[in-house]
Amino acid sequence: MIYNIRTYNCVPRMLNKYLEIFENYAMPVNNKHGFKLIGYFISDIGPQNQIVHIWEYKDLNEFNAMKKKRAADPAWSDFRDRTAGMVADQEDKIIGVKICKDDQDILLSTQFGKCIRFKSKKLRLFKGRSSKGIKGIQLKDKDKVISLSILDNTQINVKNLAKDKKIKNADDRYILSVTENGYGKRTSYLDYRVTNRGGKGIIGIINSPRNGNIASSLVVNDTDEIILSTDKGSIMRCAVKEIRIAGRNTQGVRIKKLSGVEKVVSVIKIEDNIK
User: Fold this and answer.
1) Residues pairing with 106 in the sheet
2) How far does CA 233 lie from the centroid of its chain?
3) What is the pLDDT of residues 96-125, one digit of tens each?
4) Which helix (H) or strand (E) holds 115?
5) How far apart, in whole angstroms, are the C-alpha atoms of residue 263 and residue 138?
6) At 129, is the secondary structure helix, strand, or coil?
7) 99-136 burial string, b = 16+ CB within 10 Å, else e?
8) DSSP summary character for residue 40
9) In whole angstroms, how far apart are CA 226 and each of 83, 182, 207, 209?
10) How far is residue 10's CA from residue 23's CA, in Å, rounded to a whole number?
C-alpha cells in the first residue's frame, strides 16, 4: 500500500469555508473515482491554518489512473474553482496587472515559448481582492508565465488568413517575442487563435538552445520602439519595424548581439508620452 500525505495552507479566515466546500464538493468526486481518505487533521498554529490529508492507494498505477479520471470530471473543476484563493501558494507571484473589458482577450506567455489567448469574460469576477483567482494556462514542470497582454477581440475569421492577404494586413498589431539570448520576432496577433482558458497553450516562439528561454512578450505595432536590457547593464533601443515578421512556430532572428554569458532580462515598449 502507498500512503500519501498532503498538506494545505489555508489563507486566514478561510479554513472553515474550505472544509465545508471540501466535504460537500470534493469528497463526492473523490469517492466516485475510488480515492480513500483514511484521515485528516487541522492546525490553527501560525499565520496560516494547515490541513493535512492522508490518502491510501494500492500502488502508483492505481493512483495515476484515478487522478487522471478525476481531473477530467467537471465536478472536480467546479470544486477547484470554488476553493480558488483559499489555499496559499508560497511559490506563486504576480507578473502583471492590466485593466480589461468583456470584449477583449487575454494573452499569457511563458518562458518556454508557450502562449494562450482566451476571452476576458471567461475569467470569474471575484468579490474580494484577496481571492487567488483561477487557472489561465496549464504549465509544464519548471515553466512559468512571464507576461500578460490585453488584445482587442477581432471578428476576422482566422481560417481565411492563409488565403486572403488583405485580411492578413487588416491590422498592424503584432506579438513581439524576445529570448534571453538576444533573438526574437514579431507575429501577427491574428495568428494567436482564441481558445478556452486553462489549456496547455500553443507555440509562440521556439525556445531552442540557440534562443534560450523567452525573456519578454508584448503587443506592438510598426510605429513602436523598444528598449532591451541585459543582466550586464547593456541596453539597446530599436524600432519594431526593423524586426522580422515570422510565424509562431519559428526561432526568429538576432536582435542584439550578446557577449559571453550575457542574457536579456527586460524588454519594454517606449510609450508615446516619453518619446
Assistant:
1) 118, 150
2) 28
3) 888 888 889 999 999 999 999 999 888 877
4) strand 114-119
5) 26
6) coil
7) eeeeebbbbbbbbbbbbbbbbbebeeeeeeeeeeebeb
8) E
9) 40, 13, 21, 24
10) 15
Q: Which residues of the chain have pLDDT under 50?
A: 155-156, 165-170, 273
Cα→Cα distances 33→20, 25, 45, 257, Å: 20, 13, 33, 54
To which residue does cell 502508483 refer?
A: 60
Q: Which residues of 70-93 are buried (b: 16+ CB within 10 A; e: fewer)?
A: beeeeebbebeebbebbbbeeeee
Structural contact between residues 147 and 217, judged by C-beta atoms closer than 8 angstroms: yes
Can you list the domains of the chain with their CATH numbers?
A: 2-82 (3.30.70.100), 104-274 (2.120.10.90)
State the pTM of this model: 0.63
Cα dihedral sign, 177-165-116-172? positive
Among 216, 224, 236, which residue's Cα sits nearest to residue 274?
Answer: 224
Q: Closest Cα to residue 183, out of 275, 272, 252?
A: 252
Type and span of the H or E element at 267: strand 264-269
For 126-155, write each residue's pLDDT tens digit: 666 556 677 888 888 888 899 999 888 764
DSSP annotation of 25:
I
